[in-house]
Design a protein that fits this description.
mainly alpha, elongated
C-alpha cells in the first residue's frame, strides 16, 4: 500500500449513502451477473443495486481492518511464550504508588 491510500470509514459511507444516490448503467459479465443474482436472492434484496451495495460494504469492512506489521506480530508471539508471573499489587510492583 502507498502512503496516500485513503480509506472510507463507515460513518463516511453512511453519509454518502443517505446524502445522494447516483444512477449508473453498468456492464456485467455473465459470472458477475449470476453472483449478484445469488446475493440478491440470498439476502432478499429488491434489486441488483442493493446487491452491489452489500458487496461493496463487505469489501470496505474487510479492508477497514489494518494489517499488523510483522515486527509487532513477532513481538506479541515472543510475549506469549514468556512465563507469566503472579503479581499481588500491580501498582506497587511497577512503582505506580
Amino acid at each position: 500500500m502507498t502512503r496516500n491510500t485513503k480509506y472510507i470509514n463507515k460513518l463516511d459511507l453512511f453519509k454518502l449513502r443517505f446524502s445522494r444516490m447516483v444512477q449508473a448503467l453498468v456492464r456485467l459479465d455473465d459470472n458477475t451477473n449470476r453472483v449478484l443474482n445469488i446475493v440478491k436472492a440470498q439476502y432478499d434484496l429488491k434489486d441488483k443495486g442493493e446487491a452491489i451495495e452489500l458487496v461493496v460494504n463487505r469489501y470496505i469492512e474487510d479492508r477497514d481492518e489494518p494489517e499488523l506489521k510483522p515486527e509487532f506480530v513477532k513481538k506479541i508471539q515472543e510475549i506469549q511464550k514468556q512465563k507469566s508471573i503472579r503479581v499481588d499489587d500491580f501498582a506497587k510492583r511497577y512503582g505506580l504508588k
